[in-house]
């Protein structure tokens, strides 16, 4: 994967940690009971000062178990108990994914206006672009992602911008950009789906099929991949395969960030089933 540059980060020597360990050590030398008390206090302090890590781990587990409300609460706690921007970015994204545009917008605006590292700021801007899109400002979202991409290249930005170009309807630009994204990362499922779908919409079915063959080998975990592939298969006259993939799309829970609806999927399932029935 191409890199814009290598950032060397200087790690601060953990002076405080060494000081605390030294205090515990000399406490034991002076008196065993005192040493145990000081050690206990030190352990409690370390647990308390690093509680954001516990919140993040618990939140991630809750999210994987589809306990979204619990995950949101834990990510919010993690964001409030550390200066590290990472849990705040995840919290803002999850707010958006569950449809809370206003709160998500507030989280990312605060991050963009704050004094955080450039990597985190670019991630906040990228996510805020999605907020703009879901608020109905697709042009603003595209402009912001183009601005981010001029300073900061990442697979996520390529995936988001490529998707928005497709939604915008400029197929020539969508194909050109998603080919560029594919050259940047040819194994990312979202980029493969974007390019395959752009080719399909532009009428290049053979190239679209090539992309979807690559994509299906990766077992993508989002409904658009199967929905779009099904549309291609239907166009190619492979109706049984089209039905199978549309039903796979129907097995997913649709998030607020998905541009699909349950009725879209069900409509296409019925259409394909009717075609198959007529051919029998």
Automatic annotation (TrEMBL):
InterPro entries the UniProt entry points to: CellSynth/LPSAsmb/PSIAsmb, PPR_rpt, TPR-like_helical_dom_sf, TPR_rpt
Alphabetical UniProt keywords: Membrane, Repeat, TPR repeat, Transmembrane, Transmembrane helix
Transmembrane segments: 20-48
Sequence ranges of the TPR repeats: 155-188, 189-222
Key word Transmembrane helix present: yes
A Pfam cross-reference name: TPR_8
Statement: the UniProt record of this protein carries the keyword Transcription regulation: no
PROSITE patterns, per database record: TPR
Domain of life: Bacteria
PANTHER family recorded: LIPOPOLYSACCHARIDE ASSEMBLY PROTEIN B, TPR REPEAT-CONTAINING PROTEIN PA4667
Name of the molecule in the record: Tetratricopeptide repeat protein
Organism: Acetivibrio saccincola
């Amino acid at each position: 994967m191409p890199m814009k540059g290598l950032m060397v980060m200087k790690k601060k020597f953990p002076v405080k940690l060494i000081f605390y360990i030294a205090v515990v050590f000399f406490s034991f030398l002076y008196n065993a009971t005192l040493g145990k008390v000081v050690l206990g206090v030190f352990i409690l302090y370390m647990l308390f000062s690093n509680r954001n890590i516990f919140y993040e781990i618990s939140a991630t587990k809750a999210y994987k178990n589809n306990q979204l409300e619990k995950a949101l609460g834990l990510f919010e706690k993690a964001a409030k108990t550390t200066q590290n921007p990472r849990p705040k970015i995840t919290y803002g994204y999850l707010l958006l994914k569950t449809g809370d545009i206003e709160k998500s917008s507030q989280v990312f605006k605060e991050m963009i206006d704050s004094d955080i590292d450039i990597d985190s700021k670019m991630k906040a801007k990228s996510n805020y672009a999605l907020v703009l899109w879901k608020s109905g400002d697709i042009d603003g979202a595209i402009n912001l992602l183009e601005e981010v991409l001029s300073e900061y290249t990442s697979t996520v930005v390529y995936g988001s911008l490529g998707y928005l170009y497709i939604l915008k309807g400029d197929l020539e630009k969508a194909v050109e950009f998603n080919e560029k994204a594919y050259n940047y990362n040819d194994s990312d499922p979202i980029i493969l789906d974007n390019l395959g779908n752009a080719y399909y919409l532009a009428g290049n079915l053979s190239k679209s099929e090539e992309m979807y063959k690559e994509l299906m080998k990766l077992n993508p975990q989002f409904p658009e991949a199967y929905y779009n592939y099904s549309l291609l298969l239907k166009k190619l006259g492979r109706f049984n395969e089209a039905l199978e993939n549309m039903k796979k799309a129907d097995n997913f829970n649709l998030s607020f960030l998905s541009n699909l609806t349950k009725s879209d999927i069900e409509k296409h399932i019925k259409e394909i089933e009717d075609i198959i029935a007529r051919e029998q």
